[in-house]
Every structure is written in C-alpha cells, then in structure tokens.
User: What shape does this take?
Amino acid sequence: VRSKAIKLEKMEVVSQLAASISHEIRNPLTVVKGFLQLMKSKDILAETREQYINIALEELNRACAIIDDYLTFAKPFPEKIEPLDVHHELTKVIDMLRPLANMSGVDIVSALMPAKVSGNAQYFRQCFLNIIKNGIEAIQNVGAVYVHMHVDERTVTIVVRDEGAGMTKEEIARFGEPYFSTKQKGTGLGAMVAVRIIEMMNGTWTIKSEVGSGTTMTVTLPLLLEK
Ligand code: ADP
Ligand code: MG
Assistant: This one.
C-alpha cells in the first residue's frame, strides 16, 4: 500500500511549522503551571500532592518529547539554506540514534554515498531523526533499520526500511496527520514534521508498509549539481 504527499506552498510550510512549535510546547507547560498553583495551597493531602507532582512530571516529559520531534537540532538562524552532504548529515543522525537503537536491541545498517542536496542542516537532520526513530520504535524485539540511498542524474533517494510491526492501511492513510499516534507516549508530531520538511525541500515521499513485515519510507530530493 502506498500513499503520496501533496506539495504545499514552501513559505506556508515554514511559518506553520514555527507557529505550531510554540503552541505545542505551551500546552503542557500551562498544565504544569496549573498544578503548581494548586499545590501552593497548604491544606492539601499528601496523596493528592503526589498525584499532582506525577501529572506535572508527565506533562514536562511530554514537552520534552515535543521538543525532540521539532527542535533537536535547533540553532538561532534555522532558515539558512546551504549545500548539504547527505552522507555526512545521515551519519550524524544515525550516530545520534545509536544509543536508543542499542537499548532497543535494534541494529542500524547504513549504506551511504556522497551526494549533495540544497537545504537547511537542522531541518534535514530533524526529518531523518524522526523517520529513523519511528523505525527503531516499531521494532518490538530484535531487528534492523536499514538506511540506504541511491543517486541518479537529478535526484537523491533515501530509503529507510525497518523490520518492525508495520502499519495497517488506516495507519498509512493517517501518517503525517498531526497528533495521530498509536504509541502510549507518542506525540503524533514526528511524522508531520518530517513530511513538511521533505516538502520544504521540494522532495517527495512514499510509504510502503505491511503489518508484521515492516515499513519502508522512501524520500526523494532534488540533487544539487556542482558547478
Ligand atoms: P509518534 O512516533 O510520536 O507516535 P509520529 O508522528 O512519529 O508520532 O508517528 C505517527 C504514527 O505513525 C506512529 O504512532 C505509528 O503508528 C505510525 N508509524 C510511523 N512510522 C512507523 C514505522 N516505521 N513503523 C510502524 N508505524 C509507524
Ligand atoms: Mg515518532
């Protein structure tokens, strides 16, 4: 089963992304603030206080998860567009995810080659961080996530395949929809962020998945030709 994204207007995508970040982080922080205010009251049962603390901690964890999905590589001037070496950038992302992969019994197997695309390094890394992380999280016991690429005359194609749980047709259809998550502590924002970044880079993507056999996400970006 395949599904393909529709291209959005570039600027619209950038501003939407920036606007949603502050919105998403403000929500859990508002909840924490509310519970801290409640805890200021003197006549509060120890048990209740404990409950409030746990809720506040969970909301703070959620804020952290949202930051991970949006801003892992954040820098002060995120809009800088430059030539990016795909091999180099993907290696950074994979190195960063290795501890998580090791902890989850997942092998990350990569076969990369030098190729340049035009884009922003922060966004590029965030995009593939989210995609590869989903691959790792999809594997219940042991398995691998493969990151392969190929280059042709005009495009660079990056293929991320996992041996994870796979997705139903309905899940594939909802991939990239904000807040859609099947995970207990998921944000449902990682895929949306990834998809928007691909569109921002004038790329295309397809997802192919089957329950029980895993998921393959294919991202195609315009090759930056060296002058
Ligand atoms: P989150 O990871 O926080 O749940 P995402 O936006 O990253 O949110 O992903 C949304 C949903 O898409 C996931 O909860 C999962 O159901 C599905 N999904 C994404 N990638 C994969 C994958 N590689 N294998 C299986 N399911 C996936
Ligand atoms: Mg995710």
Summary: The chain is about 50% helix and 20% strand. Strands lie at 2-4, 82-85, 106-111, 116-119, 143-151, 155-162, 204-210, 214-222.
